[in-house]
Amino acid sequence: MADPSQESADAAPLTMFEKIWRRHAIFERDDGQTLLFVDRHYMHEGSFHAFDALERSGRKVRRPELTFGVADHYVPTVNRDSPIPDPEIRNMVELFARNTRHHGIVQFDLADPRQGIVHVVGPELGLTLPGQVIVCGDSHTSTHGAFGSIAFGIGASEASHVLATQSIWQRRPLTMRVHMSGSVQRGVSPKDIVLALIGRIGARGAVGHAIEYAGPVVEALSMAGRMTICNMAIEAGAKAALIAPDETTLNYVAGRPFAPRGPDWQSAWGDWLQLASDPGAAFDVEVALDVTTVAPMVTWGTSPEDVLPIDGCVPDPDSFPDEAARLRETLDYMGLQPGTPLTEVAVDRVFIGSCTNGRMEDLREAAAVLRGRKARVPGIVVPGSSEVRRMAEAEGLHRVFIDAGLEWRESGCSMCVGINGDLVAAAERCASTTNRNFRGRQGRGARTHLMGPAMAAAAAVTGRLADVRNLPEDSAA
Fold first, then answer.
1. Whole-prediction pTM value?
2. Sequence spans of domains, the chain
3. Are the C-beta atoms of 157 and 266 separated by less than 8 Å?
4. How confident is the model at residue 345 (pLDDT cuts 50, 70, 90)?
5. Tens digits of per-residue pLDDT, 239-284?
6. CA 210, CA 245: separation in Å to the nearest integer?
7. Would you give the distance in Å from CA 276 to the centre of its chain?
8. How far is 466 from 114, CA to CA, in rounded Å?
9. Residue 62, pLDDT above cutoff 50
10. Beta pairing, strands 33-37 & 25-28
11. 15-287: which CATH number, 1.10.3720.10, 3.30.499.10, 3.20.20.70, 3.40.50.1820?
12. What does the alpha-carbon distance between residue 330 and residue 326 come to, in Å, rounded to a whole number?
């Protein structure tokens, strides 16, 4: 890796992305590809193709201590004391355990109290640290950029290369700075803010770019909120997303199991605070977002860019001639009529969880709405990790969910992607705190509306898409 001291010798001011990229660059080819050192390689039980390729090549894992396995995508969220009923999924989970054990890789399996969704577990254990290059076979690896790291998803062949070499070939993306200012209004969550951004720039608005979030609104966010907006940068087409480390970052990381300690900690945080983009650093694209007018948001279509404030109405395709055909197909799939107020759209079920909104802060937001109320539709609440589950139960949040009539489950990806059996039935409408609403994402024919935790809870107690700001304060459903 490059000598960090070289940064100060450069005349031109550098962005945070450029600083981290230069530190990790091993070799740059004439075609623009750079070989990067990888600090953290996260894997889940769908990584068997990478292990197969490694086996066929006759290679060993180069740095097993820098790779961590987490069972999350396919694992059941109920009846974990019994064998996994689906033989294909059971074999996948068991094969993952054998592969990680064979190569000396630490794995957080279903029996491990540290198990959970990889993008929740990495940060809460202190494995994710500022200034790192982090990869995982999952597109929402961008979540870890909330700590000031370059984090992105990779494919099976790339994962095999990382296992064998602890490095990866990449072409450096362009940079985009999203400066957020203004006053966050009551009832507006980080999920609403990032949905508003996606609605503005589009699902391809950041393609080929790494986003750096900046500005007073970002600086005021908790780490959970920062992880949410970095998580969903992918839904704007970004390669990665970053936020400069600050006191909020340091306070979160300090004392976590894998975080530096003693003299190493003092050295580390001093270095981390130098990662921020230099004054005058040039970005390829600049976006300014005033959040003052952002309201609670909800998607109405089959892309995260199909999003409106909750007090809006289903759009009329005829008002958008260039997109009319797509919008008609979308509304047909979603079973919606143009002009319908979003607050009149009934839902069939609710899902609260995922790597986007499965942290303690998210569960607290949902519980605050559900406390003393009854859900009118079924739903499940899936904590982002086993640690989050224990913390929630210690605070009594699980009783709030159960008393409201929702299911309280074990940690995992669950209904976000629907590959573990937690599905939304065809033509059913789900109010979901997840990150994607593509056709069939939560099940064949399922209709997904994305929103924040409090909004999902409001949908549960009203049986429809609802403005959480308008719920009566006396907890009468």
1. 0.96
2. 15-287, 297-470
3. no
4. very high
5. 999 999 999 999 999 999 999 999 999 999 999 999 999 999 999 9
6. 16
7. 22
8. 35
9. yes
10. antiparallel
11. 3.30.499.10
12. 6
